[in-house]
Amino acid sequence: MMLMPMRLKPLFFIIIATTIGLFIASEIYLRFLNHRACFALAGSSTGICRHDAVLGWTNKEGEFTFSAATDQTIHLRLRENGRRAVSAGDSDAPDRREKIILVGGSFIFGQGLSDMQTFGWKLQQRLPAIKVLNYGVQAYSTYQSLLMLERILPHTTNPAIVIYGFMNHHLERNIAPTYWRAMLNQCNGPSVYIPYATVDKAGRLIHHPPETYTPWPLTKHLKIAQYLHIFYDMKFNQSPDIHPVMQRLLLEMQDWCQQYECQFFVAFLNAAPPLQNAYSRFCDQNNIKTIRYDLTGYTTNQLRNPADGHPNEMLNTLWAGQTSNVLSPLITPQK
Asked: What confidence tens digit (pLDDT) does each residue in 225-234 have?
């Protein structure tokens, strides 16, 4: 048996010790990063969401106060079916006004903002003749937004307009890739079940019930293993179905709105110019109305929360102002 030369032994142990130290430091850092980046969904006593057998999770009804990533205190009220309050007197009492229904993810919901700072609240202020219903939910996909619309639209009195908040992340969330399941699992454990959609060879939408994440070995215990799994899946397991699924979902949302005689809008809240242009063309070809926002003169740093990248109050104000300009001519004056 060949022995290691004496002069190499110190170097060998230094390399081993350094490697172990880097591993421990990386694990500690990733756990800290994970803690800062996470938001609680279903299964958490501090979360604002609860498990839902169809949607995966929905907002809880109630009033909540907590500290956000910006270390500011956030106040929010969630009404019946988890919709977010859009005025001080917002209630679940019958309201005969025409309705604007907002569906989407955290940008529509207003993550990191108090009620009065959100897009929905500011839109309600600008359009008092119509009732705004904000059904945005953290981490939702287009598919979950469709499921939400299917749930609430039949029970909404006088629906006039539906606005879906388009985000580039939704293309992948719609098919619930492993990395997306893993990311939610990191923050919330195996209690998170995600519904998703695919398309068959004929282009028909296939609905899949909520499924949870099956981790790699060690990913239950090591953040490094979790991040390696996420990286591998993002790099090597990309699905070609993201655009066919998104297009089919937009068409189905349009169909639901036509069934209930309300107008459907796709609001491009977050999409790179090539993606926005491509989906604007798709919407035009299929008679889907769009809202595109002019943010000329503003930088990303001015419009986003530096802690987590979510839109700040200024961006929500700009969205509400430009959206109300588009919608005002379409609203029937209150009699």
From this structure: 666 666 666 5
